[in-house]
What does this fold into?
Amino acid sequence: MNAAFLSRLVFGSDPKLRRLLFYFTGTAALYTGFMWLFLSVNDGALVRRADMLALCAYAVCALLSFYVLIRMSVRLGVGPTTLAALQGVFGITCNMWCYSIVGPLRGATLMGLMVVVVFCTFALRPRQTLMLAAAGLLGMGTTMWWHQAHDPVHFPPAVEALTFAIMAACSLSVTLLTGVMSKLRARLKAQKAELVKAVETIRTLATVDELTTLANRRHMNEVLAKEERRVPGGRACGSAEHPTAIALLDIDFFKQINDRHGHAVGDEVLRSFAAAARAELRSGDVLARWGGEEFLLMLPDTAEDAARAVVERIRVRVGALRVDGPEGEDMLDGRRISFSAGLTARRGAEALADTIGRADKALYQAKSSGRDRVLTA
It folds into this structure.
């Protein structure tokens, strides 16, 4: 049984649940340490052992109950705020009990109230934390008042009043400071989320053509460089067994479409072309907007004949496209969308820039010989 398995067994696998249980474990360890100190150091002169054992039994039962409640919180619909508030109330009751039984050491227990507030800061809002601190002061104040009224010899009224005043001032100060820290933490968390979103947007803009949502030229150059370094099965890329096919596709008479129907229609033609072409590709194929109405297609591990079949399927699908307006009218007035393509396969381990150069020459020949066709080089 390894450590990872034990961690999942005790804390679960859900990140939020694990975080709650880690905070709970810290609290439980703190209380366990206090109880152990009182039981091991005390010889009965300061604290009655029976009283301390009763408090320990209460704490152990409460901690076990909280562990089960946290593990079952999702199923029971108990949120982190409720769990934190309940643990805060438990901490306050422990402080009240401990203050009542530890005699001369009771002043040390007052620091526990501030620890409760700090621990709850991670789950409660500033106003909720302030309410919890007020509940703690009310509980401790009631405990101190009751003892000075019933046992003034051991709990002198003046000492209790002064102790309460100092405790209240310190507790409220800590609460206000943790409230400020909580707001800063929330602000930093929001800023982090905004930063992550901005980075994702920048990354998208750097790699994706905004109009067609295809890869842009910059990203395609990175893909081509990576393809040149790829060595499938231990063999060099571009070998006869694993060729890389490259095709350049250029929409026919695109300038006429823009001039006659407007750039909005031209943009819609580009978007429709991109969607139609992408529908014929595999997950590993890459289609990029190379510039204007020109697109670069890379088909890894694809022989020239198979690549030509892919480009022909794209040509048929694009030829069937229709660009409709808001009222359903044909915005191209019956004009068919077509493209010319130059296709080639990488030869051996040549630079893909040379492969693209041959595809470009084949594209020029396709356009010169009547367009709406695929030529190989």
Observations:
- The chain is about 65% helix and 10% strand.
- The CA atoms of residues 100 and 113 lie 14 Å apart.
